[in-house]
Design a protein that fits this description.
The chain is of the alpha+beta class. Helix content is about 35%, strand content about 25%.
């Protein structure tokens, strides 16, 4: 939900215990970091949905009508912490201050 105030914009994010870690990770990462995580998950045959978490055991396919990729099936991998999400994606924990494309490129060849 986005609430427009007269002098500033305030984003309110609601989470359950099951979605807290992924939503926190999404909001503390740069846009490029989040895209990088989505691409990494896809290379591993998974999907990272920043609002729900990591899905595995599904299949990537393309829509015949427009060629866009989509992820079918799969199950949500329970992750209660950012560290667990990174682990599922085969990564060490990346601190929020390093969630920028330049740092990722230097350390992971992104």
């Amino acid at each position: 939900m986005i609430l427009q105030l007269s002098r500033c914009q305030l984003d309110l994010w609601f989470a359950t215990p099951a979605t807290f870690a992924t939503r926190l990770m999404c909001r503390t990462g740069s846009k490029e970091h989040n895209i990088w995580l989505c691409q990494r998950a896809k290379r591993l045959g998974m999907k990272w949905n920043p609002y729900e978490g990591v899905y595995s055991a599904g299949v990537w396919s393309q829509w015949p009508s427009n060629g866009e990729d989509y992820y079918a099936g799969g199950t949500l991998v329970p992750c209660n912490t950012e560290e667990e999400i990174y682990k599922v994606l085969g990564l060490p924990h990346i601190a929020p201050e390093h969630r920028e494309l330049a740092w990722l490129t230097t350390h992971f060849g992104a």
